[in-house]
Write a structure and sequence with these properties.
This protein is of the alpha/beta class. It has 3 domains: 47 residues; 174 residues, Rossmann fold, CATH 3.40.50.2000; 175 residues, CDP-glycerol glycerophosphotransferase, C-terminal domain (Rossmann fold). The chain has 17 helices and 13 strands. The strands form 2 sheets. A 7-stranded parallel β-sheet has the order 3-2-1-4-5-6-7. The longest helix is centred in the N-terminal third of the chain and has 37 residues.
Length: 437
């Protein structure tokens, strides 16, 4: 059927190019129908060519890397996620379990060294890199990238088990549909995410996955940095670190409101790294701000350690700042729509926001010009004890997430290996697709 569609689209496009002008009348109804037919042909032609390109790339990787295999494959799509994986890799190494670290970027001398038993392979970013992973052979593949088998990232027939680990506090509400559905295991950050995934499985009637009570491995590095760099004395410092995209406060309000904050506080502004790629003009305006410090370090740890309060929006940094440094946060509470996201299926409001509103304080967008007053009010109301109490309910294994994750992944890996060995010993066929531990 696909081949027939592709051939039809090519022939139709050729006929369109050879067509000659004609003196004829087309009524509005016919013209509208013709427009949709031509649009459909053009779109079909585009997707046919793109699909053919993908198939060629996939075939090339299947032939070139047909003999490649590894035990545990760890996939990192961006340097900012290394803080999640490196403690897990180190914990696995201490257990005598080596892994192969696949990064979609080169690791230079400035990067933290890997354990000696870890193999590093830099693969291409984007579609070509995923074509590589889609033909990988491994017992276990671990990633932070959602939507396996939905978008470009596809299950390899030669990977026995797929696991996803969290890189931020989440609740599965503001992710795209089927973000976790096709993983064999999810290493959950906390109870809200675990409960939401079970709810979506029930609604969709899908098979239950292995849900592990893991926590957040990257919190350990942040916690160590926080303990090593106490808050410096002096006047209060406000860290402004929003997200990027249409829900970012910089996208909604521009940068003029920063001046009002800077008249009353010292200010550090940290633009989201993705803005440099997706919103370069806005990123340049932020870099040009006067009277403030602009932080573009690889991680926000240094900026967070110097700040007394954080101003943000929907960025994951809000929970890192509150739970690691036990300091208050103010967020611009713009209405978030669930259309096209998993929240549309779950219904209701954000459980995470409701649990944290005493110290991650929502302020309506209409108050943006008075934001300095709200920051001053929040600073006058200490919240460390309240933060610690909520944190214990929302995050599994706070401060030991990487050790727990390594134990869980090691267990999955050993069970999968034993399953393969048992089947081979009995002369049974070994299936590698979609088998859960």
């Amino acid at each position: 059927m696909k081949r027939s569609l592709s051939s039809t689209a090519v022939i139709a496009a050729a006929l369109m190019l050879l067509a000659q002008p004609a003196r004829a009348y087309i009524d509005p109804g016919t013209g509208s129908a013709l427009f949709y037919v031509i649009s459909g042909i053009v779109v079909s032609l585009y997707f046919s060519i793109r699909s053919l390109y993908y198939r060629v790339v996939e075939s090339a990787f299947r032939l070139r890397y047909k003999d490649q295999s590894c035990g545990i494959a760890i996939h990192c799509e961006d340097p900012r996620y290394e803080i999640t994986f490196l403690p897990i890799i180190a914990a696995l190494s201490r257990r005598g379990i080596s892994s192969t670290f696949f990064t979609m970027y080169e690791r230079g001398e400035s990067f933290e060294p890997l354990p000696e038993d870890v193999v590093h392979k830099a693969i291409a970013p984007g579609m070509v890199g995923y074509a590589y992973l889609n033909n990988l052979e491994a017992v276990l593949l671990v990633t932070t990238t959602p939507q396996l088998d939905v978008m470009t990232f596809r299950r390899s027939r030669r990977v026995r088990h797929y696991a996803i680990v969290q890189h931020a506090v989440g609740e599965s509400r503001y992710v795209r549909p089927y973000a976790y559905d096709y993983f064999d295991s999810v290493l959950c950050c906390g109870e809200i995410l675990k409960n939401n995934i079970r709810r979506m499985e029930s609604i969709r009637g899908s098979a239950p996955k292995n849900l592990y009570e893991t926590g957040l491995p990257h919190y350990e590095a942040l916690l160590a940095n926080a303990r090593a760099t106490p808050l410096p004395p002096g006047d209060p410092v406000v860290l402004v670190a929003p997200s990027w995209g249409p829900l970012s406060m910089f996208e909604a309000f521009g940068t003029d409101f920063i001046a009002g904050i800077a008249r009353r506080f010292k200010v550090i502004v940290r633009p989201h790294p993705q803005m440099k790629v997706s919103q370069p003009d806005l990123y340049a305006r932020i870099l040009a701000l006067e009277g403030v410090v602009v932080d573009t370090s690889r991680t926000p740890a240094a900026a967070m350690s110097q700040a007394h309060v954080l101003l943000s929006d929907i960025s994951g940094i809000t929970h890192e700042f509150a739970f690691i440094y036990e300091r208050p946060v103010v967020i611009i509470d713009r209405q978030q729509t669930n259309g096209g996201l998993e929240g549309e299926l779950l219904g209701g409001d954000s459980e995470l926001k409701q649990c944290c509103r005493d110290f991650i304080v929502p302020v309506p967008p209409s108050e943006i010009n008075e934001i300095a007053t709200h920051l001053e009010r929040v600073l006058s109301n200490p919240s460390a004890k309240r933060i610690a109490a909520v944190r214990s309910r929302l995050i599994y294994n706070f401060g030991t997430g990487s050790k727990v994750a390594a134990e869980q992944l090691a267990g999955i890996f050993m069970r999968e290996q034993q399953s393969v060995g048992s089947k081979k010993a009995r002369g049974l066929p070994v299936s590698v697709v979609g088998e859960a531990a």
